[in-house]
Design brief:
The structure holds two protein chains of two kinds. Chain A is built from 15 helices and no strands. By secondary structure, chain A is mainly α. Chain B is flat and about 60 Å long.
Amino acid sequence: MSTPLLEIISAPHLKGSRSVEMIMRHVVWSLLPICAFYVLQYGISALASIIVVTATCLYAERAFVRTGTQAGNLGDYSAVITGLLLALTLPPGFPLWMGAVAGLVAIALGKALFGGIGFNVFNPALVGRAFVQAAFPTSIATYTPSFLGGRFTEFIPSSLAWPLMTPADAALWLKLKNLDALAGATPLAKWKFDGVVANAVELLTSLSGHMAVGPAPALVLLCGLYLAARRFMDWRIPIAILGSAALTAWLLYAIDPSRYPNPFFMLFSGGLILGAVYMATDMVTSPVTPAGMWVYGALIGLLTVVIRYYSGLPEGVMYAILIANAASPLIEKVTQPVTFGRGVPGRSREGTPGYVSRTDANAAIPKKRFLRNKPKK
Amino acid sequence: MNPTTAKTWDEFMEGIWRQNPVFVMVLGMCPTLAVTVSAVNALSMGLATLFVLVCSCGLVSMMRKVVPKEVRIAVYIVIIATFVTVVDYAIQAISLALYDALGAFIQLIVVNCIILGRAEAHAAKNPPVPAMINATGMGIGFIIGLFALGAVREILGAGALFGVSLFGSNFQPWVIMVLPPGGFFVLGGWLLLFSWVERRKRRKQSGKLGEATQNA
């Protein structure tokens, strides 16, 4: 068989190398160091939690993809990201069966319901977390301290609860290890309920033991930097979130330093960094317009600080991101950039001829004739 | 089965399966979502609605030739409201705890669209006996719907059914199931299941039809 001289193929002729699957794979890679550090902090329970939650997400995704109603497939790594992020936002001693429920709800309610990847309104991982937050409020608020001795040989007892059963009391277990119940509280909860503000180095690295922080903010920022540098993530959103949260916190701190903690504490104490870098930047649920990204990020930062200060909950990142997700279609709509050639830069938009409708231009409107084929009586 | 019995049976079964008020017509959502925290609440709400539905459909059907067309809705509402008042006082007399649990939703049976819908669509056009048979089917369908929701929500939200503990004292209750969002989630789950069953049935039928035409 000879090769034809001219091969005729329809467009597109040039394809970019990046696909959904490739971007998602890079996000998974950048998440791996964070997961490794998380396991180092909390030991075998954290590892089991990550494995169980991610596996549930994958199985749920597989089941939904098989129904033939979903965009995307199992190979696009998006379910892996959902699983890893969900596991990172849950407490390390979270009962494994509840983690499985969270994973299932994340995929079913957060993603499959809308038709799969690209169609979801809310970040799936956060939908899963919001569900278990509402269903199991005590378990999700029970944290244990990091860097406990023997964490690689012994499970946190609450994580091995039987399905549908109440987990073992973590406070009792801590007492046996001669630790008080406060050792397990997150810095935010400590500040909210006891007025204790943790110091900066501890917050940034979360290396000092006996402090229940999520994954280390410094590490998350570093991994986020990689993603931003490779352009797998838009840098505007995290910057806008952190900037707006810092500004709001700083304003309040300037008004009354005795009542509000310093802005640095606000930024690095909870899940804000993880949320800003990995969850809010989800391509599907965030606006695509550059101006919209700034608005979206600013909204999340503001809401986070407001929820943390003025609500009963110590942490507000999750709800802030979910609310902003819901608002992002609207944000996108009002921040549409001017089409190339329509507006003239440097001049006011009123003076330039943009789109002129027929009625504005007083054009003669052709008379419509309905039912022309109908014979007249 | 002779044709009349078959027709009666069909009218009775209409509300239970083909036109189920909760799962197919999605009517009367207000009590469905608000009251079904437990199976007992759901059942008693369903029974109250069944009573009002059957009685008011019977009366509406009897009066269908007397009532002028212009004021029919007002007449229906008065009839329904009468029976709702009866049920209201009856429940108050039988169990005050249940009355408090159901709250304003007993009085709100008046505006339940299943009842008004049945009165307008069926009872006003048919003689009393078929109307009441159809209303009974609808009422039972509504009870089934409420019970399906109430049972799931009680099992997950309290680990019990009819107040009897199923999993022992160590059960971890799902708080969200007794909150309003839980009602929506469970209803969504049931609707999903029913539409899935329906679609499967239809696909099977069309498959059989295809085979038959191919063979013929």
